[in-house]
Specification:
10% of the residues lie in helices and 36% in strands. With 181 residues, it is mainly beta. A hairpin with a 5-residue loop joins β2 and β3.
Amino acid sequence: MAYKNAETAFPALRDEILEARKVIIFNETWIADGFEATVTEPDGTVYRVPHFSDLFPSDWNLPVNEPTSMNMGAVTREDTGERWKRVALNHPSATEMSLSFAVAPNYENVFNVHVDSLETSETCNIGFKNEDTGESVGVFTYKSVGFSVGIEPNPSTTATVSARASTYTTPGYGIFSYSYW
């Protein structure tokens, strides 16, 4: 179903095609074109993540959710954003992205997220979103404690990027540390 032509399909079928695509997209690990991502697995394996266009047909679009109205307060570009947060891990919604737990405003070098602990869930999913456009920037699925990802910004933008988390296993909580600079 996901590989049918959504542009020429009847409206009812188009919605089914797009939903089928979302299921596939959110079950893969990828980074948006223009960004780079380096993953460190718990066993120490380090690798680059494939780009969206490497995995999906050219007529597939990045998932989009409405940009969040973020209260950035006194956050400045010099703020390294080194923090941790306990996050509720729920099953992802079919219609909207999970709430953000970390925000990197106009970061210049790298936005790192590390899975410190999972209280009930066996694995978690981490996603990143461009808060200016609502586009998903990257998805990292079925990750366990010790997983770390660093995303480098798209040099052609100055986007504010947020991180979110969910789980396909048992809902619970996780502790995530994050930094950006």
